[in-house]
Amino acid sequence: MSVVAVVGGQWGDEGKGKIVDLLAEKAHLVVRYSGGNNAGHTIMNEYGTFRLHLVPSGIFHSGVTCIIGNGVVVDPQALAEEMDDLRARGVDLSGLRISDRAHLIMPYHIALDALEEQARGAEAIGTTGKGIGPAFMDKIARNGIRVGDLMDRDSFARRLSAVLSVKNAIITKVYGGDAIDFDWVHDKYSAFGKEMGGYVTETQVLAQEAVQKGDSMLLEGAQGTMLDPDFGTYPFVTSSCPTAAGACSGLGIPPTALQRIVGVFKAYTTRVGGGPMPTELKDETGELIRERAHEYGATTGRPRRCGWFDGVAARHSARINGLTGIALTRLDVLDGFDTIRVCSAYEVEGRRYQYPPASVSVLAACRPVYEEVPGWSASTRGTRAPGDLPAEARAYVQRLSELIGCPMDVISVGPEREETITIRPL
Question: Is the whole model's pTM more than 0.85, yes or no?
Fold first, then answer.
């Protein structure tokens, strides 16, 4: 048996989709365990280029069961559109399964997301506006509606009626928005229930049975550890747990089932939305990295903030997740730089931090303590073995491994599957 969790080590957008796609062909199950359609994984394969938001990245491999777990919030409209696009491009969806315990994103969640973000004004978090936060709020407040509820039209009507009256009062009386029509929501979501019915099941049972049988399972995280509500840059965080711990609760398997936890890191740092980012480059270098790597959100299209590698945040992520290995992506983006900087500590008012402080105001005041390392002029795109990398690139990779405190498993030197260097087989 091999149960491997793939988690984001930074602020998301690390290239998890490619790593999962690489590993999925050897898995029996591939599972998405957290987040919603606010996350996007870009994958390039023989079918073309895809940006998946809800469907697990293993869907391109025949015979693999792909689970949308209970820890995911599902927008049925977004899921239906994604499934239609995959079918139209020749992808077989027969292996897809959706947890009956996954919570639904409702139209009032999307409306409230926009209204609440607007009300924050200058303190806006920078959400994707897709209703993710309000849906998770309702889950915790016990006001949520789950995928399984759509399978019973009468039960769904009673549940929706009770919740919608409260939501409309907030939308109209607090924010001055327009009320949402009950019949429209009920009919639309009942139709989604019929469409999704064949895919809905008790996915935690499938996963638990797979563990007992010794099947290989790949757990696909969304977002990154620095967006975790407890250990990220709160309040500029996501609404679910993107860490390895979330993989267990978001699927329904015991922590003892996890055997390897691979942290995915870019060779530099990016983030989308508001919040502190100590190594952000607001200059020509940051713009060069953005344009060279086409750093724009797969979900929103928003330009990503770019900066040098943040070893402080990376080390924090490694400890929180208990990483057993690293998948380093986008090394090729740094080809041609004369020198490269790496943040090894933060400093503020004479105090040095080896780990991110909890206070967002303190973190915002932190300044990176940089090491400068030599760059390399040769292209890394054609390399397929560690020894073929330029000596300076090998030294850079080694330094990142030391800062993170974890061995290197995989190095990605391009978006294609074959543009990958394997150091330790997964």
Answer: yes
